[in-house]
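Good morning C.,

I know you're traveling, so I'll keep this short. The sequence:
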Amino acid sequence: MYNKDNSKSGFPNPLAGPLEKQHKSYGLQYAKAIEGQWGKMTDKNSLYGSRNKIFNRNRHYANGTQDTSIYKKLLTSLNPNAGEGSLLNLDYTPVPILPKFVRVVVNKILSRNPYPNLEAVDPISSSDKNKEKQRLRTQVAVKEDLKDLKQQTGGLVLDVDPDQLPDSLEEADIFLETNIKTDAEIAAQVATNMTLSWNNFNDGTYRRCVNDLAAIGMAVVKRNNDPNYGIKTDYVDPAMFIHGYTEDPFFEDIVYAGHIKEMTVSELKRLAGNELSDDDLKDIIKVASKKSDKYSSYNDYRDYSSKNDYSEYIVQVLDFEFLSVDCMYFEEKQNRHGNVGFFYEGFEYKERQGSVYERTPHKMEMEMLYGGTYVLGTKFLVNYGKVANVPKNVHDLSKCRLSYSPVATNLMDNMPKSMVDSCVGFADMLQITHLKLQQAIAKAKPDGLIIDIEGLENVQLGKGGDLQPLELHDIYEQTGVFYYRSKNPEGGFQNPPVRELGNSIRNINELIGLYNHYLRLIRDTTGINEAMDATSPKGDALVGVRQQAIAAGNNAIYDITNAAMVLFKKVCEDIVKCIQIIPEESVLMKVYENAIGDTNMKVLSSFSDLPMYNFGVQVHKEMEDEEKQYLEQNIQVALAQKEIDLEDAISVRGLRDVNQAERLLIVRRKKRMKKQQETAMQNSQIQSQQAQQASMTSSQARQQEMQMEAQLKAQELQLKSQLEGQLEGVKHEFRKEIEMIRAQATLGFKTDDKEFKEKIEVLKEDRKDDRVKKQAVEQSKLLSQRKDKRGELQESAPGFDINEIMQ
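The C-alpha cells, ready to paste straight into the viewer:
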C-alpha cells in the first residue's frame, strides 16, 4: 500500500543539484519509486489495484452493467458459496436505477454551461479599469450635454457615441460588470474560449470529467503544449492516474503526478527517437508480454524475434512529472569604477576566491518541473529532462504547477468516495427485491376449480348412460353448463360440486413496499428527490415546496458541482498562462491572431502585452431552467403591461447571469416607466397647449367677430346718422320751403311792412264788426226764444273771407 515516508519508498534525494536531477538515472529512480509505491496493476492488494477495483465496480453500477453473480449466489437453492444448486429462470438484468441518478446529476451540471471570465488583477490593470469606469460614469452623468454637442458638431469632436451610453448610473454599473475590459483582457478571453473550442472541451472532455465525478468521485485533465497542435487539454482516466499523497480534494499539495497509458511499440519508438535501439525494444516486449493481463492474448501470438511483427506489441508506459526546488544564483559585483552590477550566474554557482572587487551572491529558490516517459517494469526511460514551456505567473516566477488538473469530490487516505459508491449496497438490495418479485410472479398459480367428484357421479343424460366427472368437466369447459345432482344418495341436499379457486401473488405488496424503501434510501443518500428529477407532477406540490425540494437537491450535489467548477477554472488558468508564454514570432501566435481576425487591431496588438498581466479566472454558469422560466415569466409580464420594449427583452435574455438579468430588467423597466411618464407629461402638456391654443383661437375669433360686429354697427350708425343728417337736411329744407310758402300764403306778396300792418289792422276791425253782429243776432235769438214773440234774426249776407285776402 501507499507509504507516506518517501525515504523508505526509494525516492531520490530532493536536495540534489540541478545537473544531477537532469540526469536520466535520477528520473529512472524517481519513476521506479512511483511504481513501487503504487504497486503493479495486476496486484489487487496494491494501492493501484485496490483503487481500480473500486473504480471499475462503481463505473459498472453507474452504467447499470454490474456483475450479477452475487445475485445468483444469493438465490441459489442448495450451496450458494460453491455455486452449486438450481437457479430460478429469472431475468438477472440489473435495474438501471443508479444510471438514472448519475444522468440526472451530470445533465443538471452540464445544463448550466460554464464559461470563463478573465480579469486582470495586477495593479496596473486595476488602475486602468478604474479610470475607464470613472470615465464612463462621467460620460453617463453628462450624457445630455454630449447629445447637444453631437447635434452641434455632428459628432466630429467626440470619441464616444452618447446614444450608446447607458441612461443611468445604475444601468452603467451593470454595464461595467459585464463589458468594461482592457484590450489584454479581451485578447486573453477570446484566446481562451477559442482554445476550449478547438479542443472540444465543453462537449467532450468536460462531460466525461463530470460523469467521472458522479461515478467514481475523481476527474483529471492534462494540459499539453504541442508545437504542432498548440495547447491541448486531454482527458485522463482517473483509474490510470497516479499522484503523490494528499488529503486535499483539489490536489494542490501533490509533488508528483502521472498516468499510465498503453501504446504500440512503434508509437514508443517514434516518441523515443534515437534513445531506444531495436534490442532495447525487444527487451521491452519480453517484459510487456508478461506485464499486462489485458493485452496478453493480443501479444501472445506475435513473434518479437521478427523485425516485421514486433512493432504491433502493446506496452504500458508511465508519463510522469514531479516538482523540485532549484536555486537560481545572481551575483552583485562592483567594478573598477565603483559601480555595482547585478549578474545572472545560473543554477550552479561557486563563489570565487581572491577577487579584487567585492562580490555578493544572491539566490532565488524556484520550483522546476521535470518529467519523462517510463516503460513499466523495465529500466528504460525516454524524453526525460526539465519540462519546457512551463506556464508561470509573471508576478511570481518562483512557483509553477503540474500539467495535470485533478479534482475529487472528497478524499480520505488517498481514496475518493463517490455518490455511486455510497449507493452500491442499496442498489444490490433493490435488485434482489426485483428478483424476488420475479420469483413470486413465476411461482404464482393460475385461477382453478375445486371439484367434488362424489357430487358428479352417476349423472344420467338421456340414452347415453351415466357420465363420468371428467366428461362433465369437458362439457363445462366447452359449453359453460355444468350438470350435477343436488341430492346425495341419502336424499339430502349437497353443495355445488364445482367452485372457483381464485389466486394472488404472495407477498407482492410487501415486496413492492421493500422496493420503494430501498429506492427512498438511494434518494436520501444522493439527495436527488422527486422534485429535482421531475418524477412528481407539478400539481402535486406547491411552488414553494418544490423550490425548497430543488434547493435541497442542489445542496446535496454541491460537492460534485463545486469540483466541476474548480476543474474548469484550473484548465482555464493553465490555458491563459500557456497563451502568455507563446513566442511572438511563432506559428502558433500567428494562428491565434488569424483566428481572432485582422480587423480587431487592438486585440491583435495586445497579444504582445499579455505576459505583463496577471489574470484571475472566474467561472460563471448559465442560468438553470427554473431560473430561465422565472425570468421569462417576468419578461412576459413586463411586456404584457408594456413596461419594457422588445429590445429590452432581447437584451435581458442575452445575459447569462440571472442576477444581472434581473437587475437589467428592473433598470429597463424603470427606464420605460420613466419614459412613459415623460411621454404622458409631454402629451398632457401638448394637450394643454392645444387646448390653450384652441381657447386663444376661439377667443381671437370671438374678438374678431365682436370687432366686426362693432365695425358693422359703427358703420351702420354712421350710415344711419348720415342718412338721418341728410334726411334732416332735406326735412329742414322742406320745412323751410313750407314755412316760406305759409308765410307767403298768409301775408301775401307785401311790398313793405307798413302796408302789411295796415291791412292787418283793417282786417282786425272788420272781423270785430262781424263778431258784434254775430253776437247781436245770437242775443236776439235767445230773447225771442224766451218770449216766443218773434222769429229769429237772420244772419246777414256773408262778408269777405280772409282766405280770399290770403290768396
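Safe travels,
E.
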